[in-house]
Structure to design on (794 residues):
């Protein structure tokens, strides 16, 4: 090997073109700084991470321990354990009155796995996917990873930060392959109107596209009954998760319900990209639908609701503008332009000076992101109250 | 919505162009048939699945149970728990005498996750990756998923079914971005010569490409000491797994060691595609490097070796041609052309008539795949002996 070649190699590392379009979670740097401050003895009011503090529900934990003790933790079918797929199907009947055959239920490595498989099976290079801006950042990056193009549609209070049939029609192009709706939404906590979702489905179907509905925060809604898109159609991709309502984040387990003709392609993609989801997590999740577990989860849901009911008026009284009351998930997306002209700088300043960790709008898209921050409230009310007091003092200065 | 549009939608489902290039594991259909036969009361000699029967090593199981009992199973850093990354780094020092900083160790959802991240971070559409044919089928499908082109290089006994520097030079094109070496290889169980691997590295480096070395069967070698590519260079992607040597298949945990300049891109890709690997599996894996665990795993390795030593001469005596003695993993890739002209039909016939399940060459590439079958031998010797007897009777007919 001669010198010029060596130089060439060092100045031209192979980096995929997709990597330019994929952003890190900006908030991770802020979270790391928060941990650093805590390590230095500072108390930090953490309203940044989208993860409840609660332990895995006891019956799920016990099922996991039994599975380990029984000895065999092996590869499973790439689509998941039949018994778990049946239980998920039964959940749709009990919860939504919908019959879903086992064949259409696919267990995945978190909803992340479900989104990867969905985009991988659907998108050819250049295909567009319409989605709300603000929205969960990974969604657009799954699309970019598969060489598709995520089209963020600016949404605001007038549509409860959700897409509408009119917006879908307006932004549809010959390259549009799919529309992604997330309800309840991360970061806004808002729900899509069920009738509007049906109208969006009709528009998408009429144009030969595919509708994907992210229902991973289902179960965590306050007031309205959850409505699944499966109640009105079976040609929709539904994404769900054991992480949020079921409290199993670190187990990495989710699921999807796919239209029948996509099962075979998704099966072969899942075989190749994942082999199978975690056997252990699946065996534990068999206890997720147990009535005692669900009773516990409903209590936790009620607590989240109380936390929202506490935090929401407090934030409004501090000067944050929250025009649409969030009815699901555990997030409040707050307009902060009365308090700052740059939410990213604001988040850093609030962390350093007030000891409060919140997420900048930047992580959720481009539309008015400098004017917004996200509060995550799956925390006890005293913890939230302390955060509010710190913000009040900070803002008075 | 009018009728023509409805028809249009139904005849034109969106399926990604990549899906045409991604094949299912053909053997899955055969495995399902084997299970069906077993459910009907037939005894099946299973030499098809690449997974040992042994339970999770006790200390790993106990660590998993402790983690569940402690309550918090959460998202971790996307690159993995620091303590586990340190233990993996220490393993490289203890096992290979190599110093690897924690920063370059990335914990993943199985080696599948590591391969997905590697190909995702490296490959732009059209980029080629050179790899041996036969080889592990998922490897080429990870490349296709990322819109790259896997170039299977026909290899045979003359190179122990491995690539050589000469082959890499011969097949290199301006579109070649990377070369993937798997040693020990699935399906052939053969190792690459350490000197040849260094020569390949020199060729790849001289051309500004990237070398990826799949070491997931390291630890399972019989006779020779494992040699990691990290012993001679730090600009290589190393893929490894807790599934095989460490016996943790169904926990879905693996790792990679990446060159320093790729850590940041892989971190942001991992954040977006996986959030994090399983916290529970990581906490359990903290016990994987315990001396007692390693002592147990070395015993299991010795058993695999005995099983290979039993099966290999038996297969040769049956008429299978195995020109290169496999020295690793738990596979024997056998030429069956003295026994059949179509290994796929042969595998099905052997299953139905002899009750023996083995994998057809078809799943491992195109090169002479009709002339080969793969035997998987992580089974007790009586189980293997029964399979051999059944084959002997079948072949005498």
């Amino acid at each position: 090997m001669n010198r010029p070649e060596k130089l060439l190699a060092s100045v031209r590392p192979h980096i995929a073109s997709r990597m330019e379009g994929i952003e890190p979670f900006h908030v991770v740097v802020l979270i790391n700084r928060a941990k650093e401050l805590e390590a230095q003895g500072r108390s930090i009011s953490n309203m940044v991470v989208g993860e409840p503090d609660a332990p895995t529900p006891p019956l799920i934990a016990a099922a996991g321990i039994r599975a380990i003790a029984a000895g065999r933790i092996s590869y499973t079918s790439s689509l998941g354990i039949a018994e778990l797929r049946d239980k998920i199907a039964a959940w749709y009947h009990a919860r939504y009155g919908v019959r879903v055959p086992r064949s259409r239920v696919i267990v995945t490595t978190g909803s992340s796995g479900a989104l990867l498989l969905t985009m991988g099976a659907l998108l050819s290079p250049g295909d567009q996917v319409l989605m709300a801006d603000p929205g969960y950042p990974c969604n657009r990056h799954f699309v970019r990873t598969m060489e598709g193009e995520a089209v963020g549609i600016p949404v605001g209070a007038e549509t409860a930060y959700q897409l509408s049939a009119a917006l879908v029609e307006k932004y549809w192009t010959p390259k549009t392959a799919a529309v992604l709706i997330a309800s309840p939404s991360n970061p806004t906590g808002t729900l899509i109107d069920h009738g509007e979702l049906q109208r969006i489905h009709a528009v998408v179907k009429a144009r030969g596209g595919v509708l994907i509905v992210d229902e991973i925060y289902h179960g965590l809604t306050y007031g309205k009954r959850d409505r699944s898109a499966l109640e009105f159609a079976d040609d929709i991709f539904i994404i769900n998760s054991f992480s949020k309502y079921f409290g199993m984040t670190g187990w990495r387990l989710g699921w999807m319900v796919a239209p029948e003709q996509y099962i075979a392609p998704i099966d072969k993609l899942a075989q190749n990209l994942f082999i199978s989801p975690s056997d252990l997590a699946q065996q534990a999740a068999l206890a997720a639908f147990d009535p005692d577990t669900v009773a516990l989860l409903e209590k936790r849901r009620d607590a989240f609701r109380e936390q929202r009911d506490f935090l929401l008026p407090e934030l409004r009284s501090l000067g944050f503008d929250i025009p649409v009351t969030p009815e699901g998930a555990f997030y409040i997306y707050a307009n902060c332009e009365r308090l700052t002209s740059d939410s990213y700088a604001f988040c850093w300043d609030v962390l350093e000076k007030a000891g409060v960790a919140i997420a900048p709008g930047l992580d959720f898209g481009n539309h008015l992101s400098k004017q917004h921050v996200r509060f995550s409230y799956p925390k006890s009310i005293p913890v939230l109250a302390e955060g509010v007091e710190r913000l009040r003092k900070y803002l008075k200065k």
